[in-house]
Amino acid sequence: MRSSLMRWAHNSFQGKKDEMTNSVSAPPLTLTPGAVWVIQALLEIELLPHILGLNPWVVAEGAPGLEDPGVKTLQERKRDGSGRLGPAVIDETGKVHPAVADWFETLAIPDVMLSCLGTAGDVYMAAVLCRRDGRHAAASRVADEVIVHDAGQIRGMGDLAQQVMSWIINPEAPAKAAKFEPITVPTDKFTKALGDVIHRNRGAAAMFGGLGLTPSQQRIVLAASDRPARTIGIAATQFNARGEYVSEASVALIETSEGLVVNGPRRGRDKRWWTQIEPATPAAVERALTSLVESLPTPHWRNHSRRG
């Protein structure tokens, strides 16, 4: 069970690779955290996104030499799924493959980033999707397995939604969107009502009925809250010369017994936060992510640059 969930997680995070933005490409890399550190050291990259839980490289440690066992392992050429030998991650001189270097630099110094924490049973997953200029790279981690790859071309929020949906959909048994009337409620009132039901054992009908939820909508909310099959929570971060800005809101995709549900933010003209819960169709996920990105200082995925 655990191994199948790990395959689901990493298969999901490989995303679209048919339209590469780089002139030099390479297949996705499956690495140990130690191998990630070796590549960081050779590229002199101190930090990768902290959500991945990877060790930093400290300048005082220096870079590993050609005799380092980790370097030697990454110099080996491995066969892909079709049996062909792929390029080595590190060449005979100790230089990192250009495409891999590009991915790591995009992950280390992005303009904007989606970060994700996911669960599937007892398996925990962390992932990021980063953009720097016109390049996109992604990385995911499940236990001691890290996958780093090019994320292809993301031309708009629709492409971003497709990438995010691929993170939660199990290719072996894809779930469909749940069927219910969308829910729009004030976030503060919804959070309090949900807490009263879950933690204080208050009646769902009384708590949710006060928010105007129908019995079928209440059933969806409870299904999403009570041991869902898979969940991912997504936040957005923009970077500039002053530091980073993390979105106040987040998006959640949840696989329930009723189907897939997306929970996204809405902000009224009075700046009050609302929660929008919808069947997780591609259009609904796109709306949720658009609202998330619009809550950032630069309300666009492609137009923001950390250089100002």
Automatic annotation (TrEMBL):
Recorded hits in InterPro entries, A to Z, give: EspG
- Highest taxon of the source? Bacteria
Taken from the UniProt entry, a GO cellular component term is:
cytoplasm
* Compartments where located: Cytoplasm
Alphabetically list the UniProt keywords.
Answer: Chaperone, Cytoplasm
Family membership, please give it: Belongs to the EspG family.
Q: What is this protein called?
A: ESX secretion-associated protein EspG
Organism in which the protein naturally occurs: Mycobacteroides franklinii
Q: What is the lineage of its organism?
A: Bacteria, Bacillati, Actinomycetota, Actinomycetes, Mycobacteriales
